[in-house]
């Protein structure tokens, strides 16, 4: 199994640690130093949050087309309730609204920004119903 390391710039790693642990994620001190913390989303999905000076060490090129290096981080959820719970925790702990809830019957998703503005999504999909609905790539 591969491990996915997501690296994100943050203004303050302590604020980021507080936010992500409030969402129910844990921390891995093995990858932490004065300017970086490691958030464990799942055993093989780790988010390293870096304060500005450390983040600059990772930049080796110009921004991607459109002038950004940003990504949207999407997490699967066990159901609608888990989606709503994660968003509620995010908003209660320094996160902000991003986009309206998406409810397609067979697929449900919420989104929010973390305290540094990064976009996170939580989504649930009924795979069998999605096949019957003719859901394909790009149909959200």
TrEMBL record:
Gene3D superfamilies given in the database record: 2,3-Dihydroxybiphenyl 1,2-Dioxygenase, domain 1 (3.10.180.10)
Organism listed in the record: Kineococcus radiotolerans (strain ATCC BAA-149 / DSM 14245 / SRS30216)
Any one GO molecular-function label of the UniProt entry: dioxygenase activity
Alphabetized Pfam families for the sequence: Glyoxalase (PF00903)
Residue ranges occupied by any VOC domain in the UniProt entry: 2-125
Protein name: Glyoxalase/bleomycin resistance protein/dioxygenase
């Amino acid at each position: 199994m591969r491990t996915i390391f997501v690296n994100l710039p943050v203004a303050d790693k302590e604020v980021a640690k507080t936010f992500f642990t409030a969402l129910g994620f844990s921390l891995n001190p093995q990858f932490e130093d004065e300017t970086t913390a490691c958030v464990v989303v799942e055993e093989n999905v780790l988010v390293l949050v870096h304060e500005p000076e450390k983040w600059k060490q990772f930049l080796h090129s110009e921004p991607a087309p459109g002038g950004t290096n940003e990504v949207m981080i999407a997490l699967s959820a066990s159901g609608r309730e888990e989606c709503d719970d994660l968003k509620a925790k995010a908003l209660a702990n320094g996160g902000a609204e991003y986009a309206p809830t998406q409810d397609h019957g067979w697929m449900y998703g919420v989104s929010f920004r973390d305290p540094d503005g990064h976009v996170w999504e939580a989504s649930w999909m009924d795979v069998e119903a999605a096949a019957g609905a003719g859901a394909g790539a790009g149909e959200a």
